[in-house]
């Protein structure tokens, strides 16, 4: 069986929380497409190309994982990729409303697409890209929250 899933997000930048979800997904999928959103409602710190490069560094040469940009509807992208599963990380109750809405909308758009929520490691549940960006921009230490390559990229942005 070739079970394909997409793991979509802005990944601006990818954190250890994202890494954790990628690794957990690989316990039950054969191929994981990390789908990096080209257009998000938020202004991004890292360009699409930078976000993809950082994820490629994180994933290394694991050929079960592929990093791809996407634009437009996630449901259409998943269909094009032959994926039947959307993976999302669920950290807290505060994530739930938005995630539930998104999962139901994606199901309305493509009835054969299942959203699977994964709970990250407990020590990463407070983590988000936005909090990493904020702390790094103010000179705080985020070394244990991101991959060393991401840390260097943040240092490059904020000095
Ligand atoms: O990292 P994020 O901000 O939680 O990612 C959100 C993302 C990019 C996965 C979501 O906004 C998305 O799927 N956008 C694509 C447009 C789309 O399909 N919208 C309908 C589903 S609500």
Could you provide a short overview of the structure?
The protein is of the alpha/beta class and 159 residues long. The chain has helices at 16-25, 48-59, 74-81, 93-109, 129-137, 148-158, and strands at residues 4-9, 31-37, 65-70, 85-89, 114-118.
Task: Give an overview in words.
The protein is α/β, with parallel strands linked by helices and about 160 residues long. The protein has a single domain, classed as HUPs (Rossmann fold), CATH 3.40.50. It is about 40% helix and about 20% strand. It contains six helices and five strands. A five-stranded parallel β-sheet has the order 3-2-1-4-5, with helices on both faces. The longest helix has 17 residues. It is globular. The mean pLDDT is about 95. The chain binds 4'-phosphopantetheine (PNS). The site of 4'-phosphopantetheine (PNS) has 11 residues, from β1, α3 and α4.
What value does the Rg take, in angstroms? 15 Å
Question: CATH class, anyone?
Answer: Alpha Beta
CATH topology call: Rossmann fold
Distance between the termini: 47 Å
Q: Please provide the ordered H/E string of secondary-structure elements.
A: EHEHEHEHEHH
CATH superfamily: HUPs
| Count of discrete domains | 1
Main β-sheet, spatial strand arrangement: 3-2-1-4-5
Ligands in the model, by name, code or SMILES, are: 4'-phosphopantetheine
What is the average of the pLDDT values? 96
Q: Please tally the β strands and state the result.
A: 5
The main sheet comes to: 5 strands, parallel
Low-confidence stretches: none
Percent in strands: 15-25%
CATH architecture: 3-Layer(aba) Sandwich
Alpha plus pi helix count: 6
Estimate the helix proportion, in percent. 40-55%
Shape: globular
Which structural category do the helix and sheet elements fall into? alpha/beta
């Amino acid at each position: 069986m070739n079970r394909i899933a997409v793991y979509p997000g802005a990944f601006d930048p990818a954190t250890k929380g994202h890494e954790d979800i990628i690794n957990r997904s690989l316990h039950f999928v054969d191929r994981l497409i990390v789908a990096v959103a080209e257009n998000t409602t938020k202004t991004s710190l890292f360009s699409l190309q930078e976000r993809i490069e950082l994820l490629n560094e994180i994933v290394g040469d694991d050929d079960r994982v592929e990093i791809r940009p996407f634009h437009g509807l996630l449901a259409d992208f998943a269909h094009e990729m032959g994926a039947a599963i959307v993976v999302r990380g669920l950290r807290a109750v505060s994530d739930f409303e938005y995630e539930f809405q998104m999962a139901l909308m994606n199901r309305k758009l493509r009835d054969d697409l299942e959203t699977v929520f994964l709970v990250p490691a407990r020590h990463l549940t407070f983590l988000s890209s936005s909090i990493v960006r904020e702390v790094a921009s103010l000179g705080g230490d985020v070394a244990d929250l991101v991959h060393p390559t991401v840390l260097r990229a943040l240092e490059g942005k904020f000095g």
